[in-house]
């Protein structure tokens, strides 16, 4: 469960990020997903690992972008942190791509 501090940070980050400043690219997101995420989350978001979300079914994607960004940056359970590996813009690109996978 996300702590109040993380929720507040995500909220503030969301206020600071304008759509014009951080317009997400689905094409870049797919490229980054294929490089960093596909090994566990599978092609097309069909997870290859037990307990990893199936993005093709929309699992975990009902959260706002900034909450997902914070989760990807900090890691969760078996998923490693991508803080320092991916920039915020790259994470938002991945999230934009993930949202195209929902059926």
Automatic annotation (TrEMBL):
Pfam families in the record: Cytochrome_CBB3
rRNA-binding in keyword set: no
Domain (Cytochrome c): residue spans on this chain: 24-102
Keyword Signal tagged: yes
Signal peptide annotation: 1-23
Keywords for the protein's UniProt record, in alphabetical order: Electron transport, Heme, Iron, Metal-binding, Signal, Transport
Top-rank taxon: Bacteria
GO molecular function: electron transfer activity; heme binding; iron ion binding
Protein name, entry field: Cytochrome c553
Origin species: Aromatoleum tolulyticum
């Amino acid at each position: 469960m996300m702590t109040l501090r993380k929720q507040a940070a995500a909220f503030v980050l969301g206020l600071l990020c304008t759509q014009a400043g951080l317009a997400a690219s689905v094409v870049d997101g797919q490229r980054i997903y294929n490089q960093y995420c596909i090994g566990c989350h599978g092609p097309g978001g069909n997870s290859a690992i037990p307990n990893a979300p199936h993005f093709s079914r929309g699992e975990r994607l009902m959260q706002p972008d900034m909450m997902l960004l914070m989760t990807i940056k900090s890691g969760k359970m078996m998923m490693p942190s991508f803080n320092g590996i991916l920039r915020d813009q790259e994470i938002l690109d991945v999230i934009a791509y993930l949202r195209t996978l929902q059926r």
